[in-house]
Amino acid sequence: MNDIRRDEAMLTDWRAAARRFEAALAGAVLGQEAVIRLVTIAVFARGHVLLEGDVGVGKTTLLRAVARAMGGAYERVEGTVDMMPTDLVYHTYLGEDGRPRIEPGPVLAASDDLAIFFFNEINRARPQVHALLLRLMAERSLTAFNRAYRFPLLQVFADRNRVEREETFELPAAARDRFLMEIGMEAPREADIRRALAFDPRFHDTDRLVAGIEPGILDPAALAGIAAAIQHGVRASEAIETYVIALWEALVRPQAAGIRLPGIDDMAGLVQGGASPRGVAALVRAARVRAWMEERDWLVPEDIRAVFAPVMAHRVFLEPIHELDRAEIVPALCRAVFETVPAP
Amino acid sequence: MRPLLAGLLILLAAPAAAQPGAVEVRVPRTFGYFLGDLVEATVEVEAEPGFALQAASLPRPGPVTYWLDLRSVETESAGTRHRLRLTYQTFYAAIDARTLEVPGFPLVLTSGDAHGATTAPVQVPGWSLGLSPLREVQPARRADPAEYLRPDGPGPRLDPAPPRDAALVLAGLALPALLLLARDRAWWPLRPRPARAFAEAARRLAALARGPETEAGYREGLLALHRGLDAKAGRRLLADDLDAFLARHPAYRPQAESLARFFAASRLAFFGGAVAEARTRLPLAEAQATARRLAAVERAA
């Protein structure tokens, strides 16, 4: 009984911290409240995030701001075509005495304390690098120097610009599935925000902007505990369980659910795969965090809907002929799923 | 010896081959023809070796005399013997049996090579044809020639009853089929009315209110109103969508407060696991009243 009360108090305190975290980010990255909310949910769901968007909309700035506001050890690499997995793990150089040296690379450097690993332009790295990330993201461990390194606090943030297709490598399905969310980021549309971004010198110097954020609002070491407390603290009623399973079914077999999309004749063969159990588990995890942030200790359909597209859309794999149009088809499919499946 | 031999040769050759230039006309019979009969005549011409009938000299089908037409001409050749098959038709209306002369005609035989052509004219002689009158027919004399025509035979009398009955039955069947088609195609008087979603929900709630009030019944009542809202919005309406719904259907704006209470209660009942609390906050009777008011607005809209 006492434990539960302490948990509740802790959850309330952390909710205030999460609000401050969001406010700090919103001060640095204007007009991206929805993205910031999703990133915060991902932080408290202990999930990895892939940001996707146009060039210069502030993906990197947002992730740097997240790293600073969150606190903890932080490493950053830039994806390039010639990057090899060993470049992440080992740092090789010639010592002063002229002998070659091998030391822990960017991933291993902070090891146990590594809280944020920020992979810039992840689609520029080769599939070998993506393969290394599989284990790092799923199991939070890595074998190097003949021993296993563990990264209990690790959270991977990656970004990818969707403009260029040349000299880039599409993330394999397995790697995409390991990202909790794939968040699309658009430039803000509001006129006053655009004006501020264009004319306010505060937004021209990213380093100063990020440095102005209050550091270490969240304690990475405690996040795992609070994340578990949230997952245990937010109840899911039978109705919501039925609802999620119905959504899942409708997403995988849209035709059986009676969904028709314009311009697609073969609805039965549209969705080829994906929408894995891991994906649905992630959906519920993120939805619980959202319920907690909305000061509820039970799930409602709106929680599911708020995180559905970022969590599920990138896990759905379409028939190859429609794959090129997935930027239109998958959001339309997600919308249709919510318009079709009855909530209560 | 020599004259004797030559004479013997002539004797031997004479029956085997006719004299070159000889013409013979053969007719199956030369008498007993009536008006309109076809007469087939065969003309055989014996030519010198190397000579052939000149096609241009053949008689052309057409009238020969005022009573005789030539219908067709066919030729065939075997060695030096050339044969013409002529088909005549007589139109002579004879009053008594008499013999008429079919006129002859000239033919030309040619033998041609690279240096020039040799021609030899041949005259086909005329021949005579015996024509007979038709039997006499003597109908009674009539003033009007039309009266010679015989009337048509009488047709069978047909009973109009069976086809009329069938037509009536089929018309009777066609009418409901037309109605069905009109309903299916939503033709004029049968346009589908917009479904009255809230009326249906209010009906369902009223039916539930008559029964004993149970937890399951309460949930079912909320569901009925949910389905009504879903149908009206054209999609599944969640609590957070209420404002957007009211903005799109401003007629229901006066019900905003009761709808918000309904959504809050439904949330508690279905997802908060607190049906009892939801029932105190929004009794079924109040949900029913809300549905009734919504239905009234819907009817007015």
TrEMBL record, chain A:
Highest taxon in the source lineage: Bacteria
InterPro entries on file: AAA+_ATPase, ATPase_AAA-3, CbbQ/NirQ/NorQ/GpvN, ChlI/MoxR_AAA_lid, ClpA/B, P-loop_NTPase
AAA+ ATPase domain location: 45-189
GO MF entries: ATP binding; ATP hydrolysis activity
SUPFAM superfamilies, alphabetized: P-loop containing nucleoside triphosphate hydrolases
Pfam families per the UniProt record, alphabetical: AAA_3, AAA_lid_2
Parts forming coiled coils: none
Gene3D superfamilies assigned to the protein according to its UniProt record, in alphabetical order: Magnesium chelatase subunit I, C-Terminal domain (1.10.8.80), P-loop containing nucleotide triphosphate hydrolases (3.40.50.300)
PANTHER family from the UniProt entry: MOXR FAMILY PROTEIN (PTHR42759), REGULATORY PROTEIN-RELATED (PTHR42759:SF6)
Protein name: AAA+ ATPase domain-containing protein
Species the sequence originates in: Methylobacterium dankookense
UniProtKB/TrEMBL annotation, chain B:
Keyword field contains Signal: yes
Compositional bias (Basic and acidic residues): 140-150
Region Disordered, residue ranges: 140-159
Signal peptide (UniProt feature, chain positions): 1-18
Key words of the record: Signal
Designated name of the protein: MxaA protein
Protein species of origin: Methylobacterium dankookense
